[in-house]
Write a structure and sequence with these properties.
The structure holds 2 protein chains of 2 kinds.
Chain A lengths: L15 H18 L16 H34 L6
Chain B lengths: L6 H20 L12 H6 L6 H12 L2 H14 L6 H26 L4 H9 L2 H33 L9 H22 L2 H29 L1 H16 L11 H15 L3 H8 L4 H10 L1 H19 L10 H9 L2 H39 L5 H25 L2 H16 L2 H9 L5 H20 L13 E3 L6 E3 H22 L37
The chains are: A mainly alpha, B mainly alpha.
Chain lengths: 89, 536
């Protein structure tokens, strides 16, 4: 993920970083649209059925994943800007 | 259930309402620009908002008074099925992350104020642009009306207006005053007014939720008891439950996905987005907006608390205001009601501005007066924002409130049908403009007919938003089924139209427009994952 090749050839559209970004953004869809995976009451958390606290937990997980995607996207942009010789920040 | 006017609560409510009114008028001077008579200034707040203002504005815009009343009300009535609002709002953010920055960039480059502006520029088709604009206006109107329903619910519980124990003109007076004030400051301050008021609204909402989620469960004996009582009620009623039944899972998932896709097709969401200062503001916002989802999840649980607290209301919309009145001391109930009331004003203002912008840009300027100056555009927009609000008011006062709710349900199905033209257009120019119109027409027709055919125990038509998905046999969200049909028709028709060589419209945008950022053209060019062009 951290290897930036020194070669000055056009970078491929699909790079490992971008695959990770895509996975970060797709994960909440898979997890939340697969309702059968969490449609149950146990285990409870402070008296709250699994169904509810699990989905609220996904608010936090999805936020974390979006932050990660955002950081990686910034990194991706930075490395490309440098490679394109612009040097613009 | 207490009857009569709750004086203390009403006093607190009026205090906050007055404070917000002053703020609304003062907003006209906030971040004022030299050229105030342009639609960019009045309708988009000068496109100058940073991360936090945008966050408050979007939160104030998307999480409306109706949300606060309706989501817990759905849980109160049906249990788990109503909780789909939480996955729905979670899924919205990855979607925003993907397509809104592109819309922001291209709109910034070409001075687009509405989604229809973009559609017209991208496809060179006034017809397609008109279709998107009309859908937007049609879908927004009932949404504004529902904000009034939210205020009515609060006034009802406080013992003023709306209820059975009042009559004639007097009962509607508080609502009329609230809306006259709202209309006046929206007219004078534009988008700046709701942006400022959103701070107050969110602060109040967060305080109320934080208190409610700790204070009420303690009074009711903890979540164990709350859920046990709710479960007992659903078992006794033979409907609803703490988890969705296997048959309800498709409905749950399709409602979450369909609603998530639809949310940012609404004109008011786009207005709030385009008012942000830069592309980065939007992406940064996707990382802090989920705070609202967490709040929504906690809020939804209030529906269970209302059951456990023994709140009995015939109109489910009143469940949460009634819970507040029963559980909180009067003064804090007043704060909670103010939160809901102000929660209605912010989105109502933004929605009326968004609908007015659509009318001005895509109907007035495109079809009635093509040579309108920016000052004239602003003037028309201001007047239309008044007309739209007056229309919503008449709607709520003259018709049964179930009409507004039915119509809003249809609005959600309709607005989703603009997705292929808008989001498709942001990533590819492959779709043919006429094919998109055909797809839209099929989606609209199917969605409307299907929703009309849904019966519920209380209604013969528009009894719900889910129906059997043809070919799959599961019950799913009608809007999503219509959307799939829409895409299939658009793809098929595009193949046909390309084969017969139907004239393609002119595209006034260039690939680089979609990645442009604040600052200079062509300086910061980033490549989003989905496209293959190389940087110039």
């Amino acid at each position: 993920m951290s290897d930036t090749p020194e070669v000055r050839e056009p970078e491929p559209v699909v790079t490992p970083v971008r695959v990770v970004i895509a996975l970060c953004l797709v994960a909440p869809f898979v997890a939340l649209l697969w309702v059968d995976s969490y449609a149950r009451t146990d285990p409870t958390f402070i008296g709250m059925p699994f169904f509810y606290w699990y989905q609220m937990l996904w608010v936090l997980l999805s936020t974390g994943l979006t932050v990660l995607a955002y950081r990686l996207w910034q990194y991706d942009r930075r490395t490309r800007t440098v490679r394109d010789g612009g040097g613009a920040r | 259930m207490k009857t009569g006017v709750n004086g203390v609560a009403l006093g607190v409510f009026v205090f906050f309402f007055l404070a917000v009114t002053v703020l609304g008028f003062w907003a006209a001077r906030w971040r004022k620009a030299e050229t105030e008579h342009t639609l960019d200034e009045w309708g988009l707040g000068g496109r100058s908002f940073g991360t936090w203002v945008t966050w408050f504005l979007l939160g104030g815009d998307l999480y409306t008074a109706y949300t606060f009343v309706a989501v817990p009300a759905a849980i109160y009535a049906a249990g788990a099925a109503g909780f789909f609002a939480v996955p729905y709002t979670i899924l919205v953010y990855p979607l925003i992350f993907l397509f809104l920055p592109r819309l922001w960039s291209v709109s910034h480059r070409h001075g687009y104020v509405t989604t229809s502006d973009f559609v017209r520029g991208r496809y060179g088709s006034k017809g397609l642009s008109l279709v998107v604009a009309l859908t937007g206006i049609l879908a927004t109107m009932p949404y504004i009306a529902l904000q009034l329903v939210g205020i009515q619910a609060v006034l009802d519980v406080m013992g003023v207006g709306g209820g059975a124990h009042a009559n004639g003109f007097v009962k509607d007076l508080p609502l009329l005053i609230a809306f006259a004030v709202l209309a006046a400051y929206t007219y004078s301050s534009g988008l700046r007014a709701p942006a400022l008021i959103a701070f107050v609204k969110d602060a109040l909402i967060y305080i109320v939720i934080a208190v409610a989620i700790i204070y009420i469960p303690i009074k009711l004996g903890g979540f164990d008891d709350i859920f046990a009582k709710a479960s007992a009620k659903f078992t006794a009623a033979g409907a609803g439950g703490l988890v969705p039944a296997p048959a309800g899972q498709w409905t749950y998932a399709t409602l979450a996905l369909g609603s998530a896709l639809a949310l940012f097709m609404y004109p008011h969401s786009i207005t709030a987005t385009l008012s942000s200062r830069s592309r980065d503001v939007i992406r940064r916002n996707t990382t802090i907006l989920p705070l609202y989802s967490l709040m929504l999840g906690l809020l939804a649980l209030l529906g269970f608390m209302a059951i456990a607290a023994g709140v009995k209301v015939t109109n489910g919309q009143l469940a949460i205001p009634q819970l507040f009145e029963d559980m909180f001391p009067d003064w804090f109930a007043g704060v909670a009601f103010a939160a809901i009331g102000i929660g209605a004003l912010v989105p109502a203002a933004i929605m009326s501005i968004a609908a007015a912008n659509l009318f001005t840009r895509n109907i007035y300027k495109d079809f009635i007066k093509p040579d309108a100056t920016p000052a004239q555009e602003t003037k028309v927009s201001k007047i239309v924002s008044l007309v739209v609000k007056a229309g919503a008011l008449v709607f709520v006062l003259t018709m049964d409130r179930t009409v507004a709710i039915n119509y809003q349900l249809l609005g959600g199905i309709w607005i989703l049908q603009t997705f292929p033209a808008l989001v498709g257009g942001l990533f590819t120019r492959w779709f043919h403009r006429w094919a998109l119109i055909a797809g839209w027409a099929v989606g609209m027709a199917y969605g409307t007919v299907a929703a009309y055919g849904v019966a519920s125990p209380t209604q013969a038509h528009f009894g719900g938003s889910s129906k059997e998905i043809p070919g799959i046999g599961e019950i799913g969200y009608i809007g999503l089924t219509a959307f799939v049909l829409n895409v299939v028709v658009a793809v098929a028709a595009t193949f046909v139209l390309r084969a017969v060589g139907a004239p393609d419209g002119t595209d006034e945008t260039r690939p680089a427009d979609y990645t442009a950022d604040a600052g200079d053209p062509d300086v910061e060019v980033e490549l989003p994952p989905a496209t293959a062009q190389s940087a110039p």
